[in-house]
Design a protein that fits this description.
- The protein is mainly alpha-helical and 246 residues long.
- The chain contains 11 helices and no strands.
- Helix 2 crosses helix 7 and helix 6 packs parallel to helix 10.
- It is globular, with a radius of gyration of 18 Å.
- The N and C termini lie far apart (45 Å).
Length: 246
């Protein structure tokens, strides 16, 4: 319902996928509304599912927003810059109390499902509006790079879990951060590793915009990263992950 309000009231929807097939921009026409619904719910779930360690979801959202702010500044587009900066400031204040800084062994505040769901909705709205229409500041494929880690992790689960006869929306121990924990990394170090990977992915997206790399090449790049993750990480739950790590 929230996504439908975004589409019909705010007129924010995905009308084009960009030139990802090297044959001109791909318009969605009648598929714009259902595709936007799918994408919005997908981003919301991706952010929600990444909220598994202190500071993880908030940090990933902050990195995505920083990339959007950088892209807006580069494009000279400041229409909603203040709102993005306000979200970043709020998230940074949250992370100060949520991330395990120095000798702090646990978070002082938590985001919860409501917080991660709302944050995912904000990110979906901002990413879609940044890639569509005459005021677009980035290509649709660049948005994938800005939120690559949560999207890749969630999409891999949507493929793997049904193949094992499990619902893709049920909680599990087969996320990226679970793989890192199973290999002996501390929660704090796992979060830092994932954040660093997200920063690299975001910088690749920004570089693609600055260097005007063809959207098809950028799409093939993110697809290659996804396939690499899909085939390089264990497919099972906690027991299988721990066994593969040993």
């Amino acid at each position: 319902l929230a996504a439908l309000l975004m589409i019909y009231v705010a007129d924010v929807r995905i009308n084009s996928l960009g030139d990802i097939a090297f044959n001109g921009s791909i318009g969605l026409s009648l598929l714009a509304v259902p595709f936007t619904l799918f994408a919005t719910v997908g981003v919301i779930n991706a952010v929600n599912m990444s909220d598994g360690l202190d500071g993880l979801a908030g940090g990933l959202a902050t990195i995505c927003l920083l990339c959007l702010v950088a892209a807006a500044v580069i494009a000279g587009h400041s229409a909603d810059l203040a709102f993005k900066q306000m979200l970043i400031a709020a998230l940074l204040a949250f992370l100060i109390l949520n991330f395990r800084f120095l000798r702090r062994k646990s978070a002082l505040v938590y985001m919860g499902d409501g917080g991660s769901t709302l944050l995912g909705f904000f990110l979906a709205w901002l990413l879609i509006s940044a890639t569509q229409g005459p005021d677009a500041i980035i290509a649709p494929t660049t948005a994938l790079w800005f939120l690559a880690i949560p999207l890749i992790d969630t999409l891999s689960l949507l493929i793997r879990r049904p193949m094992r006869g499990r619902s893709p929306l049920k909680p599990g121990r087969d996320h990226l951060h679970h793989h890192l924990l199973a290999r002996g990394y501390s929660p704090r170090r796992a979060v830092v590793i994932i954040h660093f990977a997200a920063i690299i992915m975001g910088l690749i997206g920004l570089a693609g915009e600055l260097l005007v790399i063809h959207q098809g090449i950028m799409f093939l790049g993110i697809l290659a990263v996804f396939l690499l993750y899909l085939f390089m990480t264990p497919a099972g739950d906690e027991e299988d992950v721990r066994a593969s790590a040993i």
